[in-house]
Amino acid sequence: MSLTKKTKVGLPLGPGLGFVLQPESWDEMEMLQKFMLYYNGFESRPVFDNVEEMLKWSGLYGLTRRTLEEELIDAGLNTQTISELVTVITRINYGQSTSISGLAGAVSLAGSESGLWSIKGGNWQLAAGLLKTANATLHLQEGIESISDAGDYYVLKSNKGHEYNCTVTVVATPLDEVNITFIPPISIPPRKMQHTHTTFVRGLLDPKFFGLSSVSDIPELIGTMELPDIPFSCISVRKKHGEHDMTYKIFSRVKLEDALLDQMFSTREETIRIDWPAYPHYQAPEDFAPIILDGRHLYYVNTFESAASAMETGAVAAENVARLIISRLPLGVTYMFWKPFVGE
């Protein structure tokens, strides 16, 4: 598995649609340094049984109580800079405006910086490698319909008619749009998911749609402001097949109809549409579901996504749940790997 470095590109604004250079972003280095505390050795990190204490320990909890816009205004940015530049980044990375929480906003801005890395051949290899290392048994194309507490274990029933008895059950998917019955019922706060409509198009953008005269004037990444007449969040070039033959990826909040795509593209050979609940719809102050859903051994990883959603936050949340399970099971030999957290 090898890494490739990603490059920074300029961010344009959208139909009307003058293109601008990307500015230096809000300084999120302090946030990143606090987040890096979760990567310290086990001996210096507690195990957390709720997200609030996990964030307070690193000093990040306050950023979930206020919006990104509030944080940026206090940092000295004016509303025009926020509207015309910062919003472009949050729309690309989270499909939302600067009304998202300060922590989600900081993660979004960090994702716009140079020095980012990806796995050559696709980041899916990270999950595949972890599964292989864990020697996990996968049940692909099989969904869980119910989780029942049977006393000393849980009974998981699938849509294939199978039953699985598990001493510990970890829910590692957002519960907001899945239909899983819990017996007895669990209680989590309501949370909306932000749907991202991803449209892949092989063809060629029409420069006239953007008020330009030549295809060569269109940058490889197009970002947009938070304006009602702009139908997409961003457009990026995924692959160049030839001078007049490219594959583009478009993010939008609603489905892009063929009529609109025909206006945006001078040629369009193939179109693939995917609608997915990509991340929570952030709205400060954030409310967090419990990590331990029933007081026993039913755990929820994705509650941490209400703070921020990224590969790194998912990994940090999952590792904490794994350590929490170890700390709560009667396996004394493993206790050397954990340290309980005592809050204020």
TrEMBL record:
GO biological process entries: prenylated protein catabolic process; prenylcysteine catabolic process
GO molecular function list: prenylcysteine oxidase activity
Hydrolase as UniProt keyword: no
Annotated ranges, domain Prenylcysteine lyase: 30-329
Needed cofactors: FAD
Pfam family, one: Prenylcys_lyase
Stored SUPFAM superfamilies: FAD/NAD(P)-binding domain
InterPro entries: FAD/NAD-bd_sf, Prenylcys_lyase, Prenylcysteine_Oxase1
Keyword Flavoprotein: yes
Keywords: FAD, Flavoprotein, Glycoprotein, Oxidoreductase, Signal
Homology family: Belongs to the prenylcysteine oxidase family.
Protein name in UniProt: Putative prenylcysteine oxidase
